[in-house]
Amino acid sequence: MKLKIAVLAGDGIGPEITQQSIKVLKAIADRFDHEFEFEDAIVGAAAIDLLDNPLPEATLDLCKKSNAVLFGAIGHPKYDNNPDAKVRPEQGLLKLRKELGLFANIRPVTTYAKLIDQSPLRPERIQGADLTIFRELTGGIYFGEKSTSEDGQSATDICTYSVEEIERMAHLAFKAAQQRRKKLTLVDKANVLETSRLWRKTVKKIAEDYQDVALDFLFVDNAAMQMILNPKQFDVILTENMFGDIISDEASVIGGSIGLLASASVGGDNAMFEPIHGSYPQATGKGIANPVASILSAAMLLDHFGLVEEGDVIRKAVATSIKLNVCTEDINKDNPYSTEKVGDFLEGLISESENNINDENLNFGQMTII
Ligand SMILES: NC(=O)c1ccc[n+]([C@@H]2O[C@H](COP(=O)([O-])OP(=O)(O)OC[C@H]3O[C@@H](n4cnc5c(N)ncnc54)[C@H](O)[C@@H]3O)[C@@H](O)[C@H]2O)c1
Ligand SMILES: CC(C)[C@H](C(=O)O)[C@@H](O)C(=O)O
Ligand SMILES: [Mg+2]
Fold first, then answer.
1. Does residue 9 sit in the same domain as residue 130?
2. Is 142 assigned a catalytic role?
3. What confidence tens digit (pLDDT) does each residue in 298-350 have?
4. 3-state secondary structure 229-275
5. What ipTM does this complex have?
6. Residues in domain Isopropylmalate dehydrogenase-like (predicted)?
7. Ligand 1 atom closest to the CA of 90, numbered from 1
8. Residue 362: what pLDDT?
9. Do 289 and 251 fall into the same domain?
10. 197 CA → ligand 2 middle, Å
C-alpha cells in the first residue's frame, strides 16, 4: 500500500519519540512491501517561534493532502506559565483537529503482565483491564465562545453540543462496543449540565439501534473514582471532550505509564495518530521519554488503513520489549534503555523476516479497528 504521512513532530519530546515511530513504520514498509512517504511540517511552539503561527497554512495544507498525520506533541513552559499569551501552541493542535474534522479520539488502555506490579494500583484490581475511551474531540467547552471581561475580573468558556455531534460519536462508540465486550458506559455530568442531559437523551435513543450492547451511565466524578477502584468494569467509555481528556490521563495509571497510551483521531477524510501525553518538557533531549505511545499510535494508523496484521506486528514487538524489559525509565527504573535504543530494538524485532516474536501470554487487549 502507498501512504503519504505528514509528520508533525512538534515540541519538547515530540521529535525524539516520533523519530522512533518513523523507524518502526519504515521497518514495516520494508517487511510488507509497502510504500510510506513521510513529509515533515512545523506545528506548536516551534511554529510560533518561526512564523508566529502555531498551525501555519503550509502545515495544514500538507495534512489535508496526506493520507494520515503522525503527530508528536506540542507545548512549551514559556506559554504554560504565561496566561496572558494570546498565541499558544495548543491552538495549533485544536485548529488542526477542527480543520481536519477529527471529531472522535480513540484511546485504548490495556495492561501488560510485566508491568502489573509497577502500577500504584493493586495487581488484582488491574490485571486484565482492557478498555477504550471514545472522547469527542471537536466540540464542547474547548471550542465554545471564550471571553474575558474588560476589567479582567471575570472570564467565560461556553460548552455547546448539538444532537448531530453526539450522534456521530455515539454510533462509532456503539460499533466499537459490538466488536468488543458489548458494553458501553456514557460518562457525563447529567445531574448538573444541560449539555450532559442532551448527551444522555441522545445516546439512549441511539442505543435502540444497538440492542446487543449494554448501555450504562456514570457521572464523571464517580467515573474518575471507578477508574482506579475497578477499571475491569469498563469496556467502551463514551464521553465529551474535556471529561475524556481528564479520565484518559487518569486511566494511564492502570497500564503503568502515560508513555504507553496511544490514540487515533478520526472522523473526516483525514486521520491523525498521536500519543495522549504532552511534550514532557523536562525530558526534552535527555533520551528518557518513552516512545511506545507514539509507536502504538503508528500501529493504530496501520489498523486504520486495514493493515491490521502489520499493526499486530508492532503491538507484538512492543509486548516483547516490555516482557524483556527493554524499556525507558518510566517503566524500567533499574536498567533503563534510552528512547532511541527502545526504537532500535523494536525496529530490529520487526525487521526480522522470520519474526520469532513469541506471543504466548501476551495481552494487547481487544483492539478496536477503526
Ligand atoms: N497532545 C499534545 O500535544 C499534548 C497533550 C498534553 C499536554 N500537552 C502540553 O504538553 C506540555 C506539558 O504538559 P504536562 O506536563 O501537563 O503533560 P505531559 O503529558 O507532557 O507530562 C506529564 C507527565 O507525564 C509523564 N510523561 C509524559 N510523556 C511521557 C513519555 N513519553 N514517557 C514517559 N513519561 C511521560 C511525565 O512524568 C510527565 O511529567 C504543556 O504545554 C501541555 O499543554 C500537549
Ligand atoms: C494539549 C491539549 C490541547 C490536548 C487536549 O486537551 O486535547 C491534550 O491534553 C491531549 O490530551 O491531547
Ligand atoms: Mg490531555
1. no
2. yes
3. 999 999 999 999 999 999 999 999 999 999 999 999 999 999 999 999 999 99
4. HCHHHCCEEEECHHHHHHHHHHHHHHHCCHHHCCCEEECCCCCEECC
5. 0.99
6. 4-346
7. 43
8. 44
9. no
10. 24
Sign of CA dihedral 96, 97, 98, 101: positive
- Look at residues 226, 255, 284 and tell me which one is the last residue of a structural domain: 255
Ligand 2 centroid – CA 75 distance (Å): 10
Residue with CA at minimum distance from ligand 2 atom 5: 245
**Each residue of 105-124: pLDDT tens digit?**
999 999 999 999 888 999 99
HEC secondary structure over 217-232 = EEEHHHHHHHHHHCHH
The parent domain of residue 228 ranges over 120-146+156-255
What pLDDT score was predicted for residue 360?
42
Supply the pLDDT for residue 356: 52
Q: What SS3 string covers 35-46? A: EEEEEECCCCHH
What is residue 268's predicted lDDT score, i.e. its pLDDT?
Answer: 82
Whether 280 is catalytic is: no
> Model-level pTM?
0.96
84 is catalytic: no
Number of domains in the chain: 2
Same domain, 264 and 361: yes
What gap in Å lies between CA 20 and CA 314, rounded to an integer? 12
**Which ligand is closest in space to the CA of residue 73?**
1
